[in-house]
Amino acid sequence: MNTLIKLSLLPLLLPAVAAAQDNSELEKQAKEKIKAFATNLKSELSKAIQQGGLEQGIRVCHHRAPEIAAQSSNEGWQLGRTSLKLRNPDNAPDSWEQNILQQFQGRFEDGESLQNMAVSAKLDGQQTKIYRYMQAIAVDSVCLACHGQDIAPATRAMLEKYYPEDQATGFQAGDLRGAFSLTKYLEQANQ
Ligand code: HEC
Question: Exposure of 163 by Cβ count < 10 A (0-12 exposed, 13-18 middle, 19+ buried)?
Fold first, then answer.
């Protein structure tokens, strides 16, 4: 490539670099929010299971997961969890999330590690720009009692009571369970 062509590409490349840097602060905030949400939920869940078994764990997930997500949805952020195999239909993905979940599933099936699987993007909303971040959630062995293949009858009965359309069972440790999904509404369209 001659120098002239290289130089003429510069203006095209610079905004891309600037945008990537711009997202890094938002990405950092998104990761912090996920960490706080996950730590909170995990500690409440393990306390509940210790005190009242898996049934109490399900109650806590049912009531506290949406509450903790709502508490984390401050400073213009909205935080939630979503999946292609849903337990709670309120967590259904929108079309952008559906697309990313399918991408994650494809990347997972191609052998990519779930550890750092994430997508970070600024998108045009109806009136303002929005920032969106999604991060894959892997199934851990502790999740299997409620999301695995071999669920105890009492646990299954309780899940059926709360979630008659539950699709979130049959997972194995290491599978892709779903994703954290965050949206931040940015003040200005050109931000
Ligand atoms: C005690 C049972 C229990 C355990 C253990 C458990 N979950 Fe869940 N999980 C639930 C319930 C109940 C819901 C529905 C919460 C709600 O109503 O929003 C849920 C919902 C979810 C969702 C939201 C998407 C959806 O399908 O509605 C994700 C993601 C998820 N669980 C991942 C995990 C992961 C990862 C683990 C292990 C680290 C785990 N869960 C362990 C019971 C459990």
Answer: middle
